Amino acid sequence: MAISVDTFFLNSDAQGTLQAQIQEMIAEGILSGRFRVGEKLPSSRKLAVHLGISRITVTLAYTELLANDYLTSRGRSGYFVSENAPVPPIYTPPVQSREAVDWDTVLVRKFTGGDTPRKARDWRGYRYPFIYGQADPSLFDHANWRLCSLRALGQKDFAALTDDYFDQDDPLLIEYIARHTLPRRGVIARPEQILITLGAQNALWLAGQLLLNQSSKATIEDPTYYTLRDQLHHVGCQVDCIPVDQDGLPPQDISDDTDVIFCTPSHQSPTTATMPMARRRELLQRAHDIDAVIVEDDYEFEMSFMRAPSPALKSLDSDGRVIYVGSFSKSLFPGLRLGYIVGSEAFIRQARALRANVLRHPPGHVQRTVAYFLSLGHYDAQIRRTAKVLQDRRQVIEEAIIEHGLTVSGEGVYGGSSLWMQAPDGINMAHIAEQLKPDSVIVEPGAPFFSAQHRKHNFFRLGYSSISANRIAPGLALLAQALKQAETA
Amino acid sequence: MAISVDTFFLNSDAQGTLQAQIQEMIAEGILSGRFRVGEKLPSSRKLAVHLGISRITVTLAYTELLANDYLTSRGRSGYFVSENAPVPPIYTPPVQSREAVDWDTVLVRKFTGGDTPRKARDWRGYRYPFIYGQADPSLFDHANWRLCSLRALGQKDFAALTDDYFDQDDPLLIEYIARHTLPRRGVIARPEQILITLGAQNALWLAGQLLLNQSSKATIEDPTYYTLRDQLHHVGCQVDCIPVDQDGLPPQDISDDTDVIFCTPSHQSPTTATMPMARRRELLQRAHDIDAVIVEDDYEFEMSFMRAPSPALKSLDSDGRVIYVGSFSKSLFPGLRLGYIVGSEAFIRQARALRANVLRHPPGHVQRTVAYFLSLGHYDAQIRRTAKVLQDRRQVIEEAIIEHGLTVSGEGVYGGSSLWMQAPDGINMAHIAEQLKPDSVIVEPGAPFFSAQHRKHNFFRLGYSSISANRIAPGLALLAQALKQAETA
């Protein structure tokens, strides 16, 4: 690659001659790894014009660098970074010499820390990845996704998709969600009641920002999706963390002064509990009585391979009180970052304005690709294929669990892609998880899901969406062994 | 398309027989436009199994709907929505009957309103679109973009890109920005100092959230990018709006208690003023003296077709005090939603955590496509091509402006894609813009760029990035005519 003339600037404050400055710029570029072996320097004429200096100055600088083996000359084709130049393996510009700003004071809000755990980016390198929420590339219909993407990149779509949508979404995608996706959950909504988000997490964030402030109270499930807890922490509202039971969130435990209830009725996250119909009605009645809004995260409903899923809580909502959150990231691939939020028009109008303020809109091309993938039936086919594979794995994992005497605390009656597991009291699953890494096993410690006041360390989540069936039994054997050793230690 | 069995649910509260319920569900689906002419109903066997009822009940319901002409039967291939069924033109589910929630009270924060204007989505239908910030599809290298996208969709990249990145970015894109993009602005940064954002607007939002709260003060240019003002309004900080002059923001007008200065030194938005080097040093000195942080929005630097751009303010920053914002959305296409923010590691760490909290990360595939488009040289080629076309248009527009006696208030000395125009005093450009729409002319009223206290109504922005050269003169003729009429009225 040729080195662009635009990367050269003269510094009017600099010490030394112009020639020395040019030599230094080039030497710095090479030493920092910014310029690489074989890359072509701008011609002396070009660089001289660009910097507004005499060509002879540039030529002298190049000649000097040639003598020092930083550069090499290939006759009339010009100057190149020499093979003998000292080259660091990667681009590592020097750490800034001086930090005059006291960032600790200047940063008035801090977002690091919190309950959201850091996860292994390199999970694909593990033999036994009982990891949750990552894609299994062997299940994804990659060929058709590419075709849909190409179609969305076609000349016809391109003009529409490359525009600035301001605050709008792809009408094709919205229509599909309204006509096909939501009706499967028993939900009927008009386009004005639907907003596309950067994944379900972004939808939860929007709801938290709009519905809560420092004088309000949110009620959340305990355990729950940790990032939701982090989001509410930054809102600064009061948060009631209500322990869930085998049927999910108990409505009678919700305090009278709750403004917003966050819940996962179809498939509690992470315990996988399904809320029975009677309790759903009870929950809606409770919300009605205390005039609270409910945010329903209907995650993983597509993974119902054991029994048809019950309709969403939102489908029973005659008050317009439920805000519904769905996602395509889970069932397609998490790097997609595409979800949706459904609610009363007054709410969606504000959510749209907040989204526009923060980021305008999710990329148009991604929206259109998903719209095609859905409307051509590839999504449904993929869900069916995935469900079949998950069902097989579920059977294998259940058998292995029995064989190794492990304890299941929650297993989705409709299906799902993970089990919620309980290790014996006194076991710290964070330690076990660390210990298992050298054995190429990934399990997810459960502690981050619990609020600080109810935190338990002997739970863990066992995902089976990214591990092939034949790896499950040997992986669980290693886990069982580690647990046994820890117990007897 | 076949109607999925999953969209049928029995309502245990419903009145009437099971057969009547099924008829009603199907009729509702047809009447609301959710089921369309020719779409196939599930087989009676399938629907009966799904609902857990007798097949004869379903068959009776279907027979009844057949008699009423809602459905038609094609012998053994099943039941379909009849051509004679009453079908609304688009899907319009009924408006929810009851809104039990008082959204005005429940929504504790409101984001509608504000200074950000609503713009015409249908600008492509106009003959004379002097619109700003939209792509010109005739300039975009669509073929190579598709190739890059396909490459990023290839089997090799796919696994990496479909993963949940948690809080990380595509290392390829980050490396390119560090090695090639930033050095052109005289900026040297390490990967840990760079974060990818959902466009420049998202970058400004992140900075506002982290650096300001209700007890701090921001200084912004006046006029300025209106959405920035909206963002700061929602932060709740004090905002000083400092009128810019021909050289941009005057440093001596920045008050001592300013915490953060937002500015556009290379190319003031919207006046296009370029800040001279001497003033840049003065601005840095002023920021140093009052210990303020500077957020530099370096927009449109690629559009420097008249003169090489001066290096970014950030390149002169020896304090680590400048946070730099760049974007690919403007120079590629705005629907892309991809930008970056560069700053001290302590700042980027928090920006990364905030981004992860709100939306995790920008879609991986979009990042990788841009990385390829950049590293294969297509981006540079496109910038050169665009610059050439803009240069031609600039000449045409300047000539037409002189011909029609219009007044330029600001014109970028480096180039750019718009002019900042001044109509005679007393003219309200919002009215003129409305008036010109039937003549197929779009111009952008300038008032929203001004703060409330300094608002002027006789300015406007004339974009030339989406209008072909031969349309410029006739479009300006219409504009000049409207202005003349308004003056004499």
TrEMBL record, chains A, B:
Q: Which UniProt keywords apply?
A: Aminotransferase, DNA-binding, Pyridoxal phosphate, Transcription, Transcription regulation, Transferase
**Organism superkingdom:** Bacteria
- UniProt GO MF annotations: transaminase activity
Q: Which Pfam families does the entry mention? A: Aminotran_1_2, GntR
Q: Which residues form the HTH gntR-type domain?
A: 16-84
Q: Which family, according to the similarity comment?
A: In the C-terminal section; belongs to the class-I pyridoxal-phosphate-dependent aminotransferase family.
Identification of the protein by name: PLP-dependent aminotransferase family protein
Q: What is the source species?
A: Pseudophaeobacter arcticus
